[in-house]
Design brief:
Layout: H1 3-6, E1 22-26, H2 31-41, E2 45-50, H3 77-82, E3 87-90, H4 96-106, E4 111-114, H5 120-123, H6 128-134, E5 139-144, H7 159-165, H8 168-171, H9 186-209, E6 213-218, H10 219-225, H11 230-237, E7 254-258, E8 264-268, H12 272-281, H13 296-301, H14 303-315, H15 319-328, E9 332-335, H16 339-343, H17 346-350, E10 354-359, E11 363-368, H18 392-399, H19 404-412
Parallel strand pairs: 1-2, 1-4, 2-3, 4-5, 5-6
Antiparallel strand pairs: 7-8, 8-9, 10-11
């Protein structure tokens, strides 16, 4: 199959499967904006509300697009990434008039997303109960560090806190070494995606029942859920979780091996049928019958020996030659790619996993595409992130019907 064949039934000018959904965001930093980003990539109109004085703090975070100092609040890659495709309005939630405007906007929304500390939105008169009174079928997504209830609900949480308490850091690192944080904001990303998934499920239920609901997602719940079988293994099988580096204590080979040119190749031949293929590729057919390596149990008991065999083979070949031999034999392997290498890899561009969007000041900027592909309703980011308050006139004027004079007055008093 090629790309054209996959998209042969695509609707022309599709915005995505959520093209009829409007999202209202009261979000900042990571998890909340990521939730809105996912829904926007899927075609929803997402209106992001930010404080007039500086907006979402991530607008000012470095690094900045080359040639910018970030002072325009429209050049930081964090804000440009998480707010792509959205509309942006300024609004001071802390002022009664700002709260009233947010309630009016909520009356036009299908989904509200917020990620303030639990209780904050309710103190502003913008909690689920408040907005449900305005829009009874509203879906209200809250994302926080520890959830809306429980003994830790008031504890503040940012991405590393989710990683620390959700099992990630306890599982990551070298054997015997200190726990390690994953090198990107995985807790923010996963809780944002879980919030978006919750919104989609709630939208489906609403279309069947006509009723909205409150969706509660948290960093630690999202992280715990991504720990595959570790919870059940510890609770029910007497398993002890400990960092295992790039390998696993379940068997071998499942590790990173350095090739003759210094590049790193990951090889997964944990399963018996893959191990037999690998043994043939390495020119070591006797390993298929060696009691130490002929089955998974034997290899699990002799991990250092297995890694020594595979490591010696990989060290004798440049990466491309080793990988070509493994691919031809149907083995599972992959090179470790840097981000410059990812950007230069044709496969990502062909699948629109990396794509360029034009920025009014900076020209084409590389963006992530949406990872799931839709043959009928193609999805993905449609525009770069907006400037702070870029859509004030369109949203407050066209959607709420505020006159130019009213908008100017609200702006002069710092409400918008």
């Amino acid at each position: 199959m090629d790309k054209a064949d996959f998209y042969k039934d695509a609707l022309p000018h599709s915005r995505g499967p959520l093209a009829d959904v409007r999202v209202l965001e009261a979000t900042n930093y990571g998890a909340g904006p990521i939730c809105g980003m996912v829904l926007s990539d899927l075609g929803a109109e997402s209106i992001k509300c930010e404080l007039p004085q500086g907006g979402d703090p991530i607008r000012a975070w470095p690094p900045y697009v080359a040639g910018s100092d970030g002072k325009d609040l429209w050049s930081g890659v964090w804000g440009l990434t998480f707010n792509r495709g959205k509309r942006a309005v300024t609004l001071d939630f802390r002022k009664p008039e700002g709260q009233a405007l947010f309630r009016r906007l909520a009356a036009h929304a299908d989904v509200v997303v917020e990620n303030f500390t639990p209780g904050t939105m309710a103190r502003w008169g913008l909690g689920y109960a408040d907005l449900k009174a305005v829009k009874p079928d509203l879906i209200y997504v809250s994302i926080s560090g520890f959830g809306q209830w429980g003994p830790l609900r008031d504890k503040r949480g940012l991405d590393p806190i989710g990683q620390a308490m959700g099992g990630v850091m306890a599982s990551t690192g070298e054997p015997g070494g200190q726990p390690l944080r994953v090198g990107f904001a995985i807790a923010d990303n996963m809780s944002g995606w879980m919030g978006a998934m919750g919104a989609l499920a709630a939208l489906h239920y609403r279309r069947r029942s006509g009723r909205g609901q409150w969706v509660d997602a948290s960093l630690i719940d999202a992280m715990l859920t991504t720990s595959d079988v570790k919870l059940m293994a510890v609770a029910n099988a007497g398993y002890r979780v400990a960092p295992t580096g790039n390998g696993t204590d379940l068997g071998a080979p499942l590790d990173l091996y350095r090739c003759a040119d210094g590049r790193w190749l990951y090889i997964h031949a944990l399963y018996d049928h893959l191990w037999k293929r690998l043994a043939d590729v390495m020119g070591r057919p006797e390993l298929k019958d060696d009691p130490r390596t002929r089955d998974w149990a034997g290899r699990a008991a002799n991990i250092p020996f297995v890694n020594e065999c595979v490591g010696a083979w990989a060290a004798a070949l440049p990466l491309e030659q080793a990988m070509a031999a493994l691919d031809e034999a149907g083995c599972t392997c992959a090179p470790v790619l840097s981000f410059p290498q990812i950007l230069a890899t044709e496969h990502y561009r062909e699948r629109d996993s990396v794509l360029d969007l034009p920025h009014p000041r900076h020209g084409p900027l590389a963006h992530y595409g949406y990872p799931a592909k839709f043959s009928r309703t193609p999805a993905g980011p449609r525009a770069v992130a907006p400037a702070l308050g870029q859509d004030n006139d369109a949203v407050y004027g066209d959607l709420l019907g505020l006159s130019a004079e009213q908008r100017a007055d609200l702006a002069a008093r710092g409400v918008i």
